[in-house]
Amino acid sequence: MLSIFRLILIYMKIPFSALLIISCSFLANAQQIKYDGFGSITGIVYSQEKSPFWIHTNQRGRIDETSNVSAFVSGKATYQFSRHASLEVGVGGLFHDGYTEKLQLDESYVMLKNYWLKAYVGRKQKDELYDGLSASNQNILWSLNARPLPGISLSLKEPVPIFKKAGISIDMVLEEFITDDDRYVKNTRIHHKSFHVIFNKINNFEIKAGLQHFVQWGGTSPVFGKLPSSFGDYINVFTGKEGSDDVGGQEANALGNHLGSYEVYLNTSINDYKVEILYNHLFEDGSGRVLRNTPDGRYGIFVKSPDLDNIINSFMYEFYYTRDQSDENVTTDGNDNYFNNNLYRSGWTYESRILGVPFITLDENRFRISNNKIIVHHIGLSGIVSNLPYKILTSYRKNYGAKGSNFKKNSVLSTYLDLKIWQDSFDVNLQLGADLNSIDSPNFGAGVQISKKFF
What we know:
The protein is mainly beta.
């Protein structure tokens, strides 16, 4: 166990002495520790050079477009200090073939939770929302399409009431990450914060509204060398003020590459069915912040049954539109060029995977964004048929390319079925996917996943 803990700390660059103290505490109180583990192996075949869209998309970085085999195993140990406080250590290993054929850390983190705070350091997978039916999970800028970034995260465990009688509370997150992949600006830092206000005074009605803010900053450019990364620069990044240097002719006045999203979520229930209506407005510069790129964004509705054994347990519809890009004439190149940046040329990616909504895609070299003008209708369903749990994803998207790219406009219908065909000491899932492209041959794929929970 100590060797595993040492590996975690070395990877996260945390002093080994700190982890040793945690390990000794765990060992001394082993009877109070809860263990959980999960392992999976997947085999995939497909008819074209790359697998169908939904076979490799939003797979947490565990599968890429040319993978045929993927395997991972992860485990965590949780020590409950008290009713409201716990310490959790998690580690997981990953291998898949394709573009990257090497062992990687799927997770490696230490997390502390008490009655009001959740904090972790390391690399931790994000929670899956909306029963896995959403194309972008939490937010249009932050999906499950890539492996988690290493860093530190601080968030409120639950929303904190500030005006209890008025039914008003707040929710906040602050995170700092570092990129350790092969990219144009090495060691790019990523700052993330979010702030939401929640109103739930009215019976059976809740509205949550707020802001997500991301910034790529710092790092070492092959042209300009070490980029501004002092504490003063971080304050400018945090506040969005102009930096100490105008490096590389950046597209915005603020230091770093800023991305953000205004969000509104309406929650209610109808006949005990949970209903959520959501909206994400994305922006990358001043014009987007003042809504000049409207109607660009994510629109959706999620409905969940109170029962868990229906033919349809949950349903989600999402509409994505990104053609305006602060340009009054949507038939010409837009000004915003979502997820691209002149200085941070690898764009809004990690390990050549899009960090945000995966309908925005990379070029053939997996380097620059070649398609960020999209119109997408996306539907997700989950339920149980003949005691077999299933998930269906269907997306119809029109792709219009991106500013400066040679992308050929096309329309694509992508479908996906995940069917659990065996549940016993281990689970077996059958996965089927297909892409029907207006300018290319159909692409079909199939996979089998064998998984098991431990402890």
